[in-house]
């Protein structure tokens, strides 16, 4: 029997994320998006995940749609040292930081707060929110630039 339950995740992983990663490679990132770099928990190799831009000063907020089941969250649990690439075009830059899971944060409220700071971020967050299965907030304390 065919099930559509996993379709949003498959659509995101197989279609949307590769397009967003390619846009970053071509230095034409989609406004409202950012790129998260983690270290693979088994390989130690860099892993890149498109995320919504959650930059708020020297803190970067993320909401994992799949909670602890997301591969990037498992990578963060194994090694919390991450980088995020923010900004568009030639202004895009990597910022290093330390990630931690924030169990007592309300991820839906966090998305509402982040959505207040611009149309493109709001669009990314709304699209992301539509795929939330078991959301979890992740806070990245960024190193000074």
TrEMBL record:
SUPFAM superfamilies: FMN-binding split barrel (SSF50475). One of its GO terms (molecular function) is oxidoreductase activity. InterPro entries: F420H2_quin_Rdtase, Split_barrel_FMN-bd. Gene3D superfamilies: Electron Transport, Fmn-binding Protein, Chain A. Pfam families: F420H2_quin_red. This is Deazaflavin-dependent oxidoreductase, nitroreductase family. It comes from Micromonospora cremea.
């Amino acid at each position: 029997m065919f099930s559509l339950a996993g379709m949003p995740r498959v659509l995101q992983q197989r279609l949307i994320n590769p397009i967003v990663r390619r846009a970053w490679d071509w230095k034409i990132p989609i406004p409202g998006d950012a790129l998260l770099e983690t270290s693979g928990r088994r390989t130690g190799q860099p892993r890149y995940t498109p995320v919504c831009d959650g930059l708020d000063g020297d803190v970067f907020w993320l909401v994992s749609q799949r909670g602890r089941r997301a591969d990037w969250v498992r990578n963060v649990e194994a090694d919390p040292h991450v980088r995020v690439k923010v900004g568009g075009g030639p202004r895009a830059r990597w910022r290093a930081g330390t990630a931690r899971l924030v169990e007592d944060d309300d991820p839906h409220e966090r998305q509402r707060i982040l959505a207040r700071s611009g149309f493109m971020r709001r669009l990314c967050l709304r699209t992301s929110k539509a795929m939330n299965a078991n959301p979890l907030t992740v806070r990245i304390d960024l190193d000074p630039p």
